[in-house]
Amino acid sequence: MKHLSVFLFLFLMVSKVTFAQKNAAEKKADADSSGVVSSALLPTVAPLLLFDEDKEKEEKKEKKKNARKNIWFGVKTMKGYTRRTIRGQEYLEFFNYTDADRQPNPYIRDVYWFDTKEKAIRTEGFTPGQGYLLHGPYERMVNETVVESGMFYYGMKHKTWMVFDDRSVLQDKAHFSEGWPRESKITYFNETSKSVEKIIPIQYGLEEGNYFHFYENQQVAVTGEYKYGEKVGLWTEYWDTKNTKAIRKREIQYQEAPYTKNFRPYIRAEWDKEGNLVYRRD
C-alpha cells in the first residue's frame, strides 16, 4: 500500500509537470499562430529626419525668454525630481515634464517618462495616466555634482547632452534631434519628397538604436535593434500590405547582448501573406 501511494504521488507530479509544459508550448504556438500583429507603425508615414539649423537658432532666442515660465519648445511644463541614496552616495535627478496629451514616437527606442507611482524615470512601458513625458531641461547629480545634463522633447533626447565625472570634467558630448542621434544615416527613395527608404541610427560611429527599412509606399518592411554596432534581439520582416495591416513575414533571432561568442543567428518563424504560420523553430 505504501509503495502504491508513492507511485501515485510520483505519477501525479509527472503529470502536473507534463501538463504545465504542454500549456507553455500551446501558449508559444498561439503567439505565433497568426502573423497579423497590432503595430503602432501601421498605417504609417515614415519620419522625416531633417535636422533644421535655422529652427535651432530660433529656439535659442526663445529659450531665455521662456525659461523662467517653465515653457519649453512652446509647451508649459512642471518641475520634478527624484532622490535616492545608494551606498552612502546621494543621487538626484531634476527635470521638467508635460501633461500634454501626446503619444510617444513609436520609431524611437528610448522614450523617457516620469512614473508618478514609483517616483522614478523610466524608458519603457509609457501609458498615459500612469506618468508624464519628460520635456525640457534635465540634470542628474551625484553628491551635489552634476554628472549629466541635457534636454528632452516629449520624452526624447534632444539637442546637446553632456556627461561629466565627479570632478566636473567633461567626459562625453552627444547631439540628438527629437530622439535621433545627429550622426544617423537616412536614405531616400525620392530626395524631393523625402520618401524614406532606411533609417540607420548612428552614435559615436557605431549603429545604436532602432533600425527601420521601409517599402516605397512608406509601410515598414524591416525593424530591428543595434547595440554597439551589433544586431541584437529579434529582427522582424513584414509583408507589403499597402499599409492596411501589419503581417509578419519572418523573424530572425540575433544575440541578446552584443559580442556574444559562438552565437549564430537563426530564423525563428515565418508566415505567408495571409498571416498563416508556415515555419517555427522550437
Low-confidence stretches: 6-21
Structural shape: globular
Summarize the main sheet: 9 strands, antiparallel
Oligomer: single chain
Rg from alpha-carbon coordinates = 24 Å
As a percent range, the share of strand residues is over 45%
H and E string: HEHEEEEEEEEEEEEEEEEEEEEE
Number of domains: 2
- Secondary structure category: alpha+beta
Helix content: 10-25%
According to DSSP, the number of beta strands is 22
Tell me the span between the first and last alpha carbons: 42 Å
Signal peptide: 1-20
Protein name: Toxin-antitoxin system YwqK family antitoxin
Keywords: Signal
Write the SSE topology:
Elements: H1 2-33, E1 36-37, H2 53-67, E2 71-72, E3 75-76, E4 78-86, E5 89-98, E6 113-115, E7 120-122, E8 131-142, E9 145-153, E10 156-164, E11 170-177, E12 180-181, E13 185-190, E14 195-200, E15 202-203, E16 206-207, E17 209-214, E18 220-227, E19 230-238, E20 246-253, E21 266-271, E22 277-280
Antiparallel strand pairs: 1-20, 2-3, 4-5, 5-8, 6-7, 6-8, 8-9, 9-10, 10-11, 11-12, 13-14, 14-17, 15-16, 17-18, 18-19, 19-20, 20-21, 21-22
Signal peptide: 1-20
Organism: Algoriphagus aquatilis
Protein name: Toxin-antitoxin system YwqK family antitoxin
Task: Tell me what you see in this structure.
It comes from Algoriphagus aquatilis. Keywords: Signal. This is Toxin-antitoxin system YwqK family antitoxin. Residues 1-20 form the signal peptide. The chain has two domains: 53-180, no CATH class; 183-280. The two termini are 42 Å apart. Strands 1, 13, 14, 17, 18, 19, 20, 21 and 22 form a nine-stranded antiparallel beta sheet that branches. Strands 4, 5, 6, 7, 8, 9, 10, 11 and 12 form a nine-stranded antiparallel beta sheet that branches. A two-stranded antiparallel ribbon has the order 2-3. The chain has helices spanning 2-33, 53-67; strands at 36-37, 71-72, 75-76, 78-86, 89-98, 113-115, 120-122, 131-142, 145-153, 156-164, 170-177, 180-181, 185-190, 195-200, 202-203, 206-207, 209-214, 220-227, 230-238, 246-253, 266-271, 277-280. Helices cover 17% and strands 45% of the residues. A hairpin with a 5-residue loop joins strand 17 and strand 18 (220-227). By secondary structure, the protein is of the alpha+beta class. The radius of gyration is 24 Å and the shape is globular.
